[in-house]
Amino acid sequence: MTLLRRHLAILLLPLVLLGAGCGGTSEAEKLATKPVTLTVWRVFDEDSTMAKIMSAYQALHPNVSFEYRELRFDEYEDELIRAFAEGEGPDVFSLHNTWIGKYGSLVEPLPKSLTIPYAETRGTIKKETVYTVQEEPTISQRALKSAYVDVVVEDVLRSYKPNARAEAEDRIFGLPLGMDSLALYFNTDLLDAAGIPEPPSTWTEFQDQVTQLTQLNTSEGIVQAGAAIGTSQNVERAFDILSILMMQNGTQMTDSRGRATFAQETDAGFLGGEAVRFYTDFANPLKAVYTWNEDMPDSFDAFVSGNTAFFFGYSYHYNLIRAANSKLNFAVAPLPQIDGGKTVNYANYWVETVAKSTNAGDWAWDFVQFAASEDRVTSYLEAARKPAALRSLINSQLEDETLSVFAGQTLTADSWYRGGDAAVAEEALLDLIDAFLAGDEQERALKDAQNKVNQSL
To answer: What global pTM score does this model have?
Structure first.
């Protein structure tokens, strides 16, 4: 049994036994039967993905009901801010791993223990319901580090001060149900036609294959793109692609205080700038790897149409691609790495957390821990078709036809932005791409982007 399961399931400390269900109504019975409604807000996932978890929780606590709301990504932040401003915010809600810093003031971090009432039926011939209130320790920081991959610990374990006079301490701000990572989608028909038996495993191989796969007409127009990469606005998740190129290249993205440092010069030169040049070369007509430009359609649409060989995406793109073009022959490969370098992948995931404004904090956190536990989260992962965040579940997904690539990257997945406004940081890197393509002075452009990111902290 894992440390996480021990902490979330069996370490129960009796607080007080307040009475049985006979001879009057005890205080424990009142607490265990008092109706509680938990409002849950999440993105992308229908309520059916959480149905088994919510039903299992209600079997233990019949007094708890759920109001589940799935919101569109493009409306989520506005709705969240509006609801909390009007005092109508959810009890449990999802935050992207790069948003925790921005919305930290709205979160009630996980307490060290929860007080939860229970109803238990005892006896064989004469059955009676016994009501108790138990104090249950929550997952410890040690258990968190043992149960989850490193990037989760770095993202969710944050400094917290309950008030101005209190000393800061590290607290857990959320728990993930899954963990996604950036991978390489490829059109098998286009690779076969070019005589390429396997997708690239390194960026050098990627460059070579892109050159083979790109087709230009007599006017140097792109008829077939080797890959959707190189620009800012029409490449889906360009920020993520550029970020991972920097990280793989050894760029120090931030310092110990969390401030951006990717523009700094090292003994090896401007590593961040080298990564940007590598990225933008694919959109530079003067380069051999030229394969993309700002006049191309959106990268997802270009791949779905069958005219682009490589597309960078996440596990959720698989069903989107299949739905958009059921006849497209495609597969997924691990993200290319630098020859001889350290394997680094890019993490993209959401955590479930509890609102500071909730009137049911213990219930809400108890449900989040319940949903994230090894015994329960599997039903969500199967329904939502998501890679796992728990170390103990990674191996079980390595044989899955669609999830194996993503599951295999989880242990090496990382992220870097942990500031207060991820949208500003993303805009800074997209502007950096545009500056390089426009021929601006590169060192100055790097420092400008770094300053913009630091202003968002």
So the answer is: 0.93
